[in-house]
Amino acid sequence: MKFYNRLTGKTSKEMPDRLALGQWQIITEAEDITVNAISILKQPKLYIFPDTKKCCSIRLPNGDIKEKYFPNWQIPSDLLLESLSFYASRLAQISDNSWKEWVNISPLVHDIGETIRIQPLEELIQKYIGHIEEICHRPRTYLKMETDRLPISRVQRISPHATEFLSAHTEDWEKRTFRNIRPKRVLCLIQEDMLDIYENKVTARLIDRLLEYLQKRIVEVRILQQELDQADDFSKDIQKVYWRNRNRICSLWGEQFQSETALKITEETLKILNQLQYKLRGLLDTELYRAIPKQATVGNTLNRTNILINDPHYRYIDRLWQAWMPWKRRQIQTPQQIFETYQQSFKGFEAFCLLLISRALTGNGTTDDRGLGFEASPCFPLSDFIHFNSLKGDITLKFEPDGTIILESDAIPPLKLIPLMLPLTATEDATIINSILDEFRSSCSIKHNGSVIILYPGTEDERKKLSKLLQQQTNSLGNDYSAKEKTLPILPVSPLDILSVERIARAVQWWLYTEYCQIYPFIIQAKIPDLLLEQNSWIVREGRDYKLLRSPRLEEQATFNKHLSNLITETESRGARARVELIELQDLKNFSTQIQDKLNPLLTCPTCDKKSDNFNNLDRQCFRCNCNSCETEWGKRICIKCSGHYPYIQLSDFNILNQLNEQAIGWVDRVLGRNTLAIPSLYKTKKFIC
What we know:
Blueprint: E1 2-5, E2 11-12, E3 24-27, E4 33-35, E5 38-40, E6 46-47, E7 55-59, E8 65-69, H1 78-93, H2 99-103, H3 112-115, H4 120-137, E9 142-151, H5 162-168, E10 173-176, E11 181-183, E12 185-194, H6 198-236, H7 243-254, H8 259-282, H9 287-291, H10 306-310, H11 314-331, H12 335-362, E13 375-377, E14 385-390, E15 393-399, E16 405-409, E17 412-419, H13 430-447, E18 451-456, H14 460-464, H15 468-473, E19 490-492, H16 500-518, E20 522-524, H17 530-533, E21 539-542, E22 545-548, H18 554-573, H19 579-586, H20 591-603, E23 614-617, E24 623-626, E25 633-638, E26 645-650, H21 667-671, E27 679-680, E28 688-689
Parallel strand pairs: 17-18, 18-19
Antiparallel strand pairs: 1-2, 1-3, 3-6, 4-5, 4-7, 7-8, 9-12, 10-11, 13-14, 14-15, 15-16, 16-17, 20-22, 21-22, 23-24, 24-25, 25-26, 27-28
Helix pairs in contact: 1-12, 4-6, 4-8, 4-11, 6-8, 6-11, 12-16, 18-19
């Protein structure tokens, strides 16, 4: 058995000192092992996962046990686990030739419309809570009679054995007379109402269980409310969001329902849940609840006593308990169910990231979202790769056995995306996050020569609780802000975050244009006679190779072809002696078409995906291009400080940046989305952060 680190690509025989959910996999060899009480046969990929005690326990065939604990914050919420499992099941169900069916799956919580509504159990609580209050204030009791010695002034009912007891205890005499004894204390009967009966225990434990249920539901609905608020803001901030980005987000949300209507439903649901929680918490201070010991337990299956069946109030306790039980059964899972849930969720996060990349490249087929202008050539069930093609070039998406995704394109280094189901921002401890980020940086620098991006499930609300620096570091492509050292590209993506598709699309856009700009001007390896290069400014000689600076204009292309035709005619006249030279010249007949294919990625508008013929090569290997359709300008510039080259997009309506506050972390995703390369500076108009 070995432990495989998905970030470094290395294996180890020793269990890692610190577990990060999704980073480590177990590779079983010939032997069978037991993980969290589940027998595991030989298989290439098994994620390390926690049990109900947040522990990963591995028993080897020789009897040795290896154990490590996951911290509480690493355990994903039930809502996230259920959402991710949905994407795994949908990917497995996709039929042949149904790419449209796949990309039209919404990358948001699939049943959000149902989740934000009042559930049947909550309706019952709302209906019967008056009976619970009545029981807590006027409970049934068991009458208990005890005997005790009390002063005469406090006696209400004398015990039948009082005379015998008094005659034997002279210390209870006040004085003795000639005929009788005047007592000081006497044995009496005391009535005591006992609240600690079975039906009251059931009531107290029901209150505890309903409070637990309501707390989870409130957290769940609040998370969805934050996502709804995100969507609603896009439809309102018309002046502060680039219109293409706003249309894409609204189109994405509109695939399910209207955010404004959903927000009203969510607010009403939260109001009811909070009211119910407030009323139940008020019962914790009643005499009945305080009389029942905390350690007094009740089995999941109730004893149907006469009181629970026939009492006008207690019978509703029984109904609520029966309605609560199905939810509780879903919370209690066997080791096998926990294993299946986590493995399905890991696959689900990989499927979710695949969906985001798919939508980023091809869009959802509507006029509002055409992706980055690519078309897919997939086959279903999905094989190990998918081909995408467009004017920007061809991309091949590959699936690695360890669950990572690689994007490859001709002549540029690949982009590796590692889905890591670690809720990194679920903790507010900066020390923990920084140590994990440092480990990620060192791990990624070991193996990857090309670009690598770590994807993790995180939400905007979680990041807002962190410091400004950590907010930037946990949502960065490495080009988001000025820093002394290059930061690790790490992006939060989640069904609970409406901007996930835009982040992935911006990452792919940045990868493509950065790499293409790095190899501009393009090197052409060919043999071109000096006569064809005379008076040409679109291609220049450099040693044995040639640098392609831009596309030839029509007149330049005509001149090139005219000189080439003359050279071919002259060479043909020399007969067999010039056969090799003739072949080389004939290969240049389609030269202008071939070089056009190299320039197409730079000539394609990154905003509207239309081809431009307005390309200008500048000094120091820079260029500028303008789109005649949307008036976007893009190109390659030089940083004044570091003299490095960087790609940029300058939108036609850059004035929206004047209305922004740079202190708002993550404004790039919200305002510009994929329609940006280098990040614009809000201090200087038409300037960018290198």
